[in-house]
Amino acid sequence: MNPGKITPDTIRAMKMRGERIAALTAYDFPMTRLLDQAGVPLILVGDSLGMVVLGYPDTTHVTMADMEHHVRAAARAQPLALLAADMPYRSYDTPADAVANARRLVAAGAEAVKAEGGRAILPQVRAILEAGIPFCGHLGMLPQHVHEEGGYRVKGKTETEREALLADAQALADAGAFAIVLELVTAPVAAEITRRVPVPTIGIGSGPDCDGQILVTPDLLGMLPWFNLKHVKPRLNAAEQIRAVVAGWIADVKAGRAR
Ligand code: KIV
Fold this sequence. Notes:
Layout: H1 8-17, E1 21-25, H2 29-38, E2 42-45, H3 49-52, H4 64-75, E3 82-86, H5 95-108, E4 112-114, H6 122-130, E5 135-140, H7 146-149, H8 159-175, E6 179-183, H9 187-196, E7 201-204, E8 212-215, H10 217-220, H11 238-255
Parallel strand pairs: 1-2, 1-8, 2-3, 3-4, 4-5, 5-6, 6-7, 7-8
Helix pairs in contact: 2-4, 4-5, 5-6, 8-9
This protein binds 3-methyl-2-oxobutanoic acid.
3-methyl-2-oxobutanoic acid (KIV) binds at residues 25, 44, 46-48, 86, 181, 204, 214, 216.
């Protein structure tokens, strides 16, 4: 293996050293290559794919076939980064399903899988880990539950939610997860989980005190101006720049200046 290759142990060790983890999503070959060249240690082929690439209203429409197709594309970049993939909606209803589908993602090129939930999916998490597949947890707001929950809501505001999040994070850590994504968790609760649980926490909209941060890359690049997100300030206005460049090229074509 290339000595620079990032593994789940590298990600664990970053927490031990107090080194923050900057993770991003990618869904294809060029973006995976660019993020890797920029030095991102953890790249996730997220099921946000459904909303930011495939045009679905939420992640519940994403299939195993969709994920395999995009994981294969990302994996062709052969990143030094650890390449993780989301297990899509209903692909881990039972431990047997979870293992079979995690194996399909690994066969497509994923080096780890992520699924949403804590104690509720513990048998599935244990089965995936027993099959030798590194596992990343995902707690807080769970996008695959958007219909049951009636929307996207910040978690950890009540004492009951705080206790449940802590118990879920501890259960995932005890099972052997190498990291836990905390999505839209209140900043104090995310900080408490980060202090009390030995596994790296990777926040998205969960305050500054997680061990790392993850963003959906098109959100960071300002490619999707039709989503109005509170937790991310785009660092580029890619949508506007693409429209301007394309309009300029159309004008050049029409004027006979393009060749
Ligand atoms: O699907 C995804 O991109 C994710 C990130 C938001 C963490 O799960």
